[in-house]
Amino acid sequence: MSTALAEPVVPVRRGWTTAVVLANVGVFAAWLGPIQVLLAKQSEAVAPGNKEFVLGLVTGVGAAVSVVANPVFGAVSDRTTSRFGRRTPWVLAGSIGGAVGLLVLSGSQAVLWMLVGWCLVQLFGNALLAAVTAAVPDLVPKKQRGVVGGWVALAQTLGALVGVGLATVVGGVGGGYLACAAFLLISVVPYLLRSGDRPMVERTLLVWREFWKSFWISPRRHPDFGWAWLTRFLLNLGNGLGTLYLFFYLQDAVGYDDPDVGVLVLTAIYSLCVILTAVSSGAWSDRVGRRKIFVTGSGLVMAVAAVVLAVVPTWPGAIAGAIILGTGFGVYLSVDFALLTEVLPSARDRAKDLGVINIANSLPQVVAPALAAPIVKYAGGYPVLYALAAAVTLLGAVLVRQIKAVA
């Protein structure tokens, strides 16, 4: 067996974990800065009378690209035989391509160019994410994955904080995109210098029919993988329903005078709560050897946050919702990632299988706008939207108990 496929036994060092986290922060900043602030403001400038539709269209089409890109790039990286390793070339290519997409967005004054730019960001960002995510089961022993998963979980939160900060502090929509692009390129440098990526020695014969068939992972043959996918989809759908229109929620429902600053403040509060819970809960999960109870509990807490936003559409209510959601989401992100790495069907296809799992992250970004836009405009507004988010999240929290191979 190639050393690239062997189960890792040597604990990774802090410097390696820091490099992986920073690369993740870069790609999530490139995504969440635009999603939370820049795309909303750009949609309002391009189509002030139809801003919700434009934002939903751009994010929905981009998410559809993400659904395909993540598992495909993951499968390609599994088969990459570069002397620099399987993952490193795609981290580099993904960062460059993502930065190009952000540059396109920075000059976009029409919906078409917004679509082109955002699709590029999603396409290449997922190439980067698929590769750097697979580096964890490639190199981190199972007994260390809760802790490392906790730190990696912080990347999404810190990426949101950095992205929203750059989008808010740097002048103008175009400047915000340029700042996110620069940060994305800088963020991958430490990983490129110390990835520890192990080259694949043997070249796998590529049979296209088998390649495409490999993306279907039968839930009958791998039921734990199927339940892990479904529960992640539901929890991310609930989160997507709750956060997609946060800018407009503050503007139209709460009546907050400066909604982009409001988003930044809420993101900072949420991020602090995630930081306080993610690493500690991951380490706790490693010590007790249990995962599911943490994921179930975190889902229940996240559902409570959505209920608060539904029934208390005020600035104090939004702050309370951010605190509760951050507390639950920190536990969920760290422990659920460790759980997922323990139900992967094959060492040879780690990146592809994680890419299939990551469809459960990106597909909700397609479904959420399709559900949220008509609800906000025609079917009860934000109270109904957040009530639906709570119900979906609660269902995911309950169904995680169906996974049998992990305690």
UniProtKB/TrEMBL annotation:
Molecular function terms in GO for this entry? transmembrane transporter activity
User: What GO cellular component is one of the record's annotations?
Assistant: plasma membrane
- Keyword presence, DNA damage: no
Under InterPro entries, the record lists:
MFS, MFS_dom, MFS_trans_sf, Sugar_transporter_CS
Question: Which keywords appear in this protein's UniProt record, sorted alphabetically?
Answer: Membrane, Transmembrane, Transmembrane helix
Q: Is Methyltransferase found in the keyword set?
A: no
- Localisation: Cell membrane
List residues traversing the bilayer.
12-33, 53-76, 88-105, 111-136, 148-170, 176-193, 229-249, 261-281, 293-312, 318-344, 356-376, 382-400
Source domain of life is Bacteria
Q: How does it sit in the membrane?
A: Multi-pass membrane protein
Kindly give the Pfam families that the UniProt entry links to this protein: MFS_1
Q: Where is the Major facilitator superfamily (MFS) profile domain?
A: 224-407
Concerning PANTHER family, the annotation shows: MAJOR FACILITATOR SUPERFAMILY (MFS) PROFILE DOMAIN-CONTAINING PROTEIN (PTHR23528:SF1), PTHR23528
Output this protein's name: MFS family permease
